[in-house]
Amino acid sequence: MQNKRAIFGAKGLPYLLLAPQLIITAIFFLWPAGQAIWQSFLREDAFGIKTTFVALENYSRLFADPSYLNALKVTVVFALSTAALSMGVALVLALAVDRTLRSARIYSTLLIWPYAVAPAVAGVLWWFMFNPTIGILPYLLKGVGYGWNHALDRGDAMTLVVISAAWKQISYNFLFFVAGLQAIPASLREAAAIDGAGPVRRFWTITLPLLSPTTFFLLVVTIVYTMFDTFGVIDAITEGGPAQSTNILVYKVYQDGFVGLNLGSSAAQSVVLMGIVIVLTVIQFRFVERRVNY
Amino acid sequence: MATLTLESLGKTYDSGASAVSGINIDVADGEFLVLVGPSGCGKSTLLRMIAGLETVTHGSIRIGPREVNRLEPADRDIAMVFQNYALYPHMSVRENLSYGLRNRRMARAEITRRVEEAARILEIGDFLERKPRALSGGQRQRVAMGRAIVREPSVFLFDEPLSNLDAKLRVTMRGEIRNLQKRLGTTSVYVTHDQLEAMTLADRLVVLRAGKVEQIGTPLEVYQRPASTFVAEFIGSPAMNLLDGVMEHGRLAIGTATMRLPDAHCGPVRVGVRAEDLRAVPGGTQGALPVRLSYVEELGSQRLGHFDCAGARLIAAFPSGQGLSEEMALMADPEALHLFGADGMRLT
């Protein structure tokens, strides 16, 4: 890949060509990240008049704070449930498309649409459907004897944000699963059929192992999505409630920083999040690049 | 061990297009049958119908006494070697070989015995623990064969298994497949578009054209008595020469040349003659064709002269030492001529 090297006569030209990208990275990533790290070592008084350097105290307070630890736990539950739901449904839909030949294109196009919906809009959509007062689904659930109220019940609230967040991500996962399935040669499944494996066994022993690179890639991408891009969903549906039960890390950064104006703690939380995303990205590059299973 | 019977077998797609039709073939126990034809002639479809990977719309397929039309591929007691080998990339060679046996819940000791046995026969014992991607093309080919062998099926099906190998390896593997099949005595159906492969492997070969059987016979029968101009041109290399001629009162006329032929047919005919049946004769000999040399192909053991014969192309094979000149006369014995009617079918 790297054997084609352009030779530049003027020393400055390569830097000039790289400049737009570097400037964007510096202004929109490096500078704010640096600011956040610096801010995380500071504490301001309630009126923003005095700023004190407190070193790592913001961090030590953070990890001693039960509400932060709760947010961490909520985030893990939320991320894993959303990943499981969105990937599971996406895989089932992708398998269905892989079997259909005639209407596969229309079907796929329809399934991709939710990806174009903004998270906040998706949140509002589901919020309406599940609205305890006017929603259609609580009405139906009442019919089977379940009193749905995500404004009061922690489980209901979590279920609702997971569904809303997963719904949007299904499209993305679906696309990758379809591509992954189509990359598996038909002859492998035919060989397995001749080798006496029924459809279910074929799926578990041939299709799923061969899909594992796609699955792993999507797992990382979906977790990153649930941890960072679901702010809109949470804000539109539950605002982190009831009783902190859906207060994920990224929402808490906003609440503590912008609502609570505790900028030092909020910055420290941002840095922790940044650390998590860096770790996930490293995992992705290290393992996905060299294909997981074979 | 079993016979394979195809009876007025056909497949028509939903769109109404016919892939194969009216196929009647009896494959004897232990016979090596080769299906050969150009791309799109339906040979692969036919094989896949036998395997159960394509549905059958007409007729029946019987393996032994048992009709298998509606059986799942797994229940037909067949094994198939695919063109791209279709080895499971995430399994080791051993797992690839044993997959079909494990699916059938065979006892572990028996699986081990069969895998070892197949590995011994195919000389792949040294890399049983490797993944397919760590194998060369020839080794993958052997593993694919091994996967068929361990099953000990009634019928082997081969779908152009050698087409991904380089020319030299192809000749070696061809010999090995032939030997292996003779040793195991398993009824086999082999699909190829390579007429040389078909000739060398087959007990009998079936030439297919547009989904129909054009001719069935041993390689020599098909070579020596092609049933149609299609078969004549397809089997044998270089392809048989075909010239337009006219039969009248026991005389055959091709352009200006005429010769006696003990044949009662009258009218226009296509005359086929193999390159090796033509020989150079002095100009003006009775029945010789005057030709013009266009170029020569040197093959080492022989040289092929490409000629122009009154607008038609003609290829003749000569011993390597023979000199060729610009203007020549070529002739063949009357017995070496093949006569075909205007519809392309053999006349005698």
TrEMBL record, chain A:
Gene Ontology process terms (BP): transmembrane transport
Q: Which Gene3D superfamilies match?
A: MetI-like
Topology within the bilayer: Multi-pass membrane protein
Q: Which residues cross the membrane?
A: 12-31, 76-97, 109-129, 208-228, 267-288
Which Pfam families is this protein grouped with?
BPD_transp_1
Domain of life, source organism? Bacteria
Mind listing the UniProt keywords for this protein, alphabetically?
Cell inner membrane, Cell membrane, Membrane, Transmembrane, Transmembrane helix, Transport
Q: Where in the cell is it found?
A: Cell inner membrane; Cell membrane
Any GO CC annotation of this UniProt entry? plasma membrane
Span of domain ABC transmembrane type-1: 72-284
Predominant location category: membrane
Spell out the InterPro entries in the cross-references.
MetI-like (IPR000515), MetI-like_sf (IPR035906), UgpAE/MalFG_permease (IPR050809)
Cross-referenced NCBIfam families, in alphabetical order? PRK10561.1
The entry sums up its family as follows: Belongs to the binding-protein-dependent transport system permease family.
> Which purpose does this protein serve, as stated in its record?
Part of the ABC transporter complex UgpBAEC involved in sn-glycerol-3-phosphate (G3P) import. Probably responsible for the translocation of the substrate across the membrane.
Binding partners and assembly: The complex is composed of two ATP-binding proteins (UgpC), two transmembrane proteins (UgpA and UgpE) and a solute-binding protein (UgpB).
This protein is called sn-glycerol-3-phosphate transport system permease protein UgpA
Species this chain originates from: Pseudooceanicola sediminis
Gene (UniProt): ugpA
From TrEMBL, chain B:
Q: Family membership, please give it.
A: Belongs to the ABC transporter superfamily.
| GO terms of molecular function | ABC-type transporter activity; ATP binding; ATP hydrolysis activity
Q: Name one GO cellular component term.
A: ATP-binding cassette (ABC) transporter complex, substrate-binding subunit-containing
UniProt keyword list: ATP-binding, Cell inner membrane, Cell membrane, Membrane, Nucleotide-binding, Sugar transport, Translocase, Transport
Q: Which gene encodes it?
A: ugpC
- Which Gene Ontology terms describe the biological processes this protein takes part in? carbohydrate transport; glycerol-3-phosphate transmembrane transport; glycerophosphodiester transmembrane transport
UniProt protein name = sn-glycerol-3-phosphate ABC transporter ATP-binding protein UgpC
All copies of domain ABC transporter, residue ranges = 4-235
